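Lecture 7 notes: from sequence to structure.

We start with a single chain of 469 residues. Read the sequence below before looking at the structure.
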Amino acid sequence: MSGYNTLLTSEIHVDHDFVDGAYTAPSCTEEGAQVKGCINCGHEITVSVPKAEHTWDEGVITAPSCTEEGFTTFTCVECGETMKGDVVKALGHNHEAVVTAPSCETVGYTTYTCSECGDSYVSNVVAALGHSYTSVVTAPTCDAMGYTTHTCERCGDSYIDSFVPATEHDYEKTVTKEATCTEEGELTFTCKHEGCGKTYTQVLPKADHDCEATVVEATCLGYGYTQYKCANCDHSYIDALTQPLGHSYKAVVTAPTCDEGGYTTHTCERCGDSYVDSYTDALGHKCDAFTDIADHWGKDAICFVTERGLFAGTTATTFGPNVNMTRGMLVTVLYRLEGEPFTKLDSAFTDVEADTYFAAPIAWAAANGIVAGKDATTFAPYEDVTREQMAAILMRYAKYKGYDVTATNDLAAFADASSISEYAVSAMQWAVGAGIISGRSATTLVPGGDATRAEVASLLTRFVALIEK
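Now the structure, written as tokens:
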């Protein structure tokens, strides 16, 4: 009974029952590991796995030299570790001999040099031979000492001794180049001793110049002077300077125009030099004030007649290019072209009041046969002027001025030529022939049609260009 109790109180040990768990593979530098676990109690142990063998490459061969052994270097392709194997002994030197013979001053010897690596050493030294001199005497001359030269027959080494003083030269002189005013001369000295012939030269000074004088008068900017020039060469010099005269300017004023500014030109009366100053701005065009001509076909002619003072605007800011021209307006334009001569206001026309702008122009034109009234007492100044009336009045003015009115055109190109009033036929022929009037179209003149202010401005521009050529 007591043995049974003892069995119950004693520990009973049972071996673990391990199975493989996690596994770490070994490398060539580190051990691997195998984890084992008991399936009964879960207890784990780790068992080391030996390192793997290196995996070597084919190796790199280092050849042996004269002094160093050869070998092969193997490298592990896994970890890069290297090892040296297949060692080969050093080859040893292969010396070749070169003999250097002795000279007068240096020893002889043999140089042994390895043909593989260049290693060298010297042996078999032989003593120097010493010089073997022969002597040559050089006699003194007029300008050089005499001496004895000792020269070694083997190596050419030499030295000089036994010096003897030089003798004296015996010179005679000769002029070898005559001096001129541009070049120095030359005096040559030659030694008379036989076999010497030593020479040297001395310079002969230049001769004086033979100069002639020329007087140059002073100018506005340039000095006056006397120039002396040698008759035998190009040598010259200047003397007797006088001060420049300075400019003597005369001023001419150019008045400003519509397009260009004014200025004063100063021109020297002596030399013609000029400069410009006192600039003034351009006056500008009168027609710039008109707001109704910017894109009008007759703008250039309108600007011309307003700048010449022949036309005025219908207001301060309008020209009225498409407004019909009246008889009073046309006569006023010609009156201005004439320069507005003084005229007595004794016109017979009762419809022309003395205080109107056209009173003096109509009186002047009637007095000079340039216009006629509608009848003896009526002029009709406010009536629109026709194209044929305009041609007739303009031709009478041209005749009054004595201008050439021989130009003509048969008007055959115009289908309405037959409708021209009899009094105006020759005037229309002249105006068309002179290029003053053109047709309303290629085939019509429209002689009885009204003329606008722009048309009259163009006609007057062409007329003025014709008479001012």
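The CA atoms of residues 218 and 224 lie 4 Å apart. Keep this in mind for problem set 3.
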